[in-house]
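Interim report, section 4.2 (structural modelling).
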Amino acid sequence: MLVVQKYGGSSVADPERIHRVARRVIECKEAGNDVVVVVSAMGDTTDDLIDLVKKITDKPSDREYDMLLSTGEQVSIALLAMAIHSYGHQVISLTGPQAGIKTNEVYNKAKITNIRPQRLQAELAKGQIVVVAGFQGINENDDITTLGRGGSDTTAVALAAALKADVCEIFTDVDGVYTTDPRMVPQAQKLDSISYDEMLELASLGALVLQPRAVEFAKHYNVLLHVRSSFNHNEGTIVKGVDQVEKERVVSGIAHDLNVAKIALFDVPDQPGIASKVFKVLADANVNVDMIVQSTMRNDSNDISFTCPHDDLKKAIEAMEEITKTIGAKGFSYDEEVAKVSIVGAGMVSNPGVAAKMFEALADEDVNIEMIATSEIKVSCIIKASQVKLAVLALHNKFELEKLGSSVKS
Amino acid sequence: MLVVQKYGGSSVADPERIHRVARRVIECKEAGNDVVVVVSAMGDTTDDLIDLVKKITDKPSDREYDMLLSTGEQVSIALLAMAIHSYGHQVISLTGPQAGIKTNEVYNKAKITNIRPQRLQAELAKGQIVVVAGFQGINENDDITTLGRGGSDTTAVALAAALKADVCEIFTDVDGVYTTDPRMVPQAQKLDSISYDEMLELASLGALVLQPRAVEFAKHYNVLLHVRSSFNHNEGTIVKGVDQVEKERVVSGIAHDLNVAKIALFDVPDQPGIASKVFKVLADANVNVDMIVQSTMRNDSNDISFTCPHDDLKKAIEAMEEITKTIGAKGFSYDEEVAKVSIVGAGMVSNPGVAAKMFEALADEDVNIEMIATSEIKVSCIIKASQVKLAVLALHNKFELEKLGSSVKS
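Predicted structure of the assembly:
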C-alpha cells in the first residue's frame, strides 16, 4: 500500500511529540507500506512568526509573508526526518517546491494547480520515507506560496491524489468525525464513515477536523480519507464517496457555529437588481456572506437578511450604511448574539419531512428560529446564541444519533 | 554603481535593528545605486535551531541539518524585505537557491561552484532592491546546502563577483580592519586599506572580521571589499589587490591567537617518511594542524613540534600515544598555555630584517620564543600565553603601527 499521512502542528509541537510521530510513521513503514508524511509547522511557530511581522510593519507584502511563514514547515520536516533517521530508517525531507507542488500566483491562499511527483516517486522507489512540508508550494515565477489556513490537509490530499495513494490518513487530536461536538453532547457518536458531501457541510459548518478545500479535493479525485487520532490506534472515520456510504442514514451529524452575526435590511424596494446591488457592495468590502434570506413583506417591498462571521460585522455595517441610502431602504439592524445549528445527512434528499422534524424538535424546546436555509443534504437555522446547546441536544435526540457509530468512550 | 552589502546576524538580531539596516540599504539605493543585500540569520536563531536538533538526535543527517539551518536566513530576508517595503521602496527577497547560488554536494560546508544571476539581474533591472539569503545554496540534486561558518561573507563576495559589482560592503560591529586588536592595544589603528593576502593572513590568524574563504574568493575575482561599521558612516577598510595598496608599508598588522596548543615529539628516528607517518595519523584523526617545526638535534634523531587548536588537543594526544610506539620515538609533551603572535605585511618580502626586528622586540621584553614559522608576508611565533599582551604591545610599538591609518577614536 501507498499511505499518505498528515500530522498537524500540535502533533509536532515539541521534540518529544516529534519522536512520537516518527515512531508512528515507522510503524506504518514496517507494516510494509510506502509512506509519505505531510507535516505542519510546530505548535505556535506560525503565530510567533506573525508576531515578529507585527513588530516590523502593519502592511507586510504578501509575497514576503509567504517567504517567511513557509520556514515553519521547513523546520518541522527537517526535525521529523532527523527523528525518523535516528531510529535507523531511510528518510528524506522535501519542501513543497521540492515535492513539485505547483500553485497559482495568489500569495497567502494559493491554490494547487498541478503536482509534479517525479522526485517524490524516485525517493519512494529508493525505499525512503518521504517527509513533505505542508501548506506550501511554488508558483510559476519560482516564488514560494502558502495555501492558507489548514493548507497542510490540502497538501496531503493533493499528494495522495497525484501518487494514487491507497489512503490518506489525517491525524488529529480527536478520534474521528462525530455526530456532533462531544464537548457539548456527551452522547455524541464517532461515525465509522461519512460521505465527502456530508463532511464538506460539517467542515464548512465549523466542525474543523478537516479543511473544506481538502475535502473538495478528495471528492474530486476520489481520495479515500481516514480521519483518526494521533494519540491511539483506534479506527477513525473513513470519508469516501456517497455510493460507498450506507444510505439508510438520514441525518449523520449536527453542527453548530457561534461565529455568526445576523444583519437585516428593512423595507427594500421590490425592484429587479436590488439584491445584486446589496451583495455587490458586501463583496467589494470583502464580507464573507453565508446565509441569505429574502422575504416579501408587502407588495412593494422586501426584507433581506444575511449572516456573516463576527470579524466581518464592522465592514458589513459600513456597507449597509452606504447601501440603505443608495437603494432607499428604510434601515437595517444587526445581532451578534446568534448561532447557527445545522443537520447534515446525505439521506435527506430521499426522506421528506426531515426539515419539519427539525423545526418540531426546536419548537418543543421553545427555541425560536430566526432564519432558515436548506441545501440538498443540510438544513440550517439561525437561533439565539444562548440556546445553542439546548438545540443541539434536542436535535441529537430527535434524530437518534446516539444509535449511530461507536460511542465516545470506545 | 552596483553595490553588494552584507549584514551579519547581530545587525539583524531584532525588529529595531532590522529597521536600521533597512534605512541604511535605502540610503545606498537613494544615492543612485543598484543594491543587493546579503543577510545572515537573526542573532541567536542558528544556535536555537541547533539546540532543537540536540533534543531530537545526537547524529543529525547532514542533509536535514542544512534543510533546517537554512530557514534562519529565510526568516531574515523576508523580514528585512518587509521593513524596506514599509518605507515605500521596491524590494524582493530571494533564497540562496532563487538567487542561483549553486554549490557542490558537501552538506554543512558546501562550496559555491557557480552562480546563475539571471533572476537577480532581472529584479535589479526592474528597480528592485534585492535581499538575498546568505550562507545557503542548492546542489545538483536540487537540495539545499549551507556554506559553513561565516558563509554569508562568501555569498556576498560571490554575488559581487558574478554581478561585477563595483564594491562589496561588509558591515560589522567594528570600524574596519585594525593594526591589532583594539581591545588589547588602545593605540591600534584602523587601516585605510589592506591587500587580500594580508587580510587572508590576519583572518586565518584569528582577526575574524572576514571569513578567509570570502577573502580568497574576493582575491580570485578581484572584488573590491569595504569592511565598515553598521553603527556609523565612517569610511572603513578597503581590501584590494596588492598592486593597489601602498607598498612602502612593511608590517600592516599584529595578530594573536590564544586558541593554540603545542605538542612536541622527542627523539624521532631520522628516517625518510617519518614526518609523513606522523601527520598522516593526525589527519586521519581530524586534527587541524597549524604550525610544524622540525629540528635535527643529533645526527640520528629529530624533534618534531606542531600546534593545533585546543579542541583538537585530546585527539592529537591519542594520535601521539599511538605513533610514538609505531615509529619508536622517545616520547612527547604538550602545552596548552601558549599563544601565537604574528606580524603580517605584504611589504615584508622586499624588506629583509623584519623577522630579526620582531625577535628583538620580543627579546627586549623577555618573551621567550618557543616556535617560529614564516611565510612570504607573515612571521609567527609561539610564546607563553601569559605574555601575549606584552608581546603584541611591544611589536605594535616596534613597527610604529600607531602611525598607520586613522586612530580608534576617530
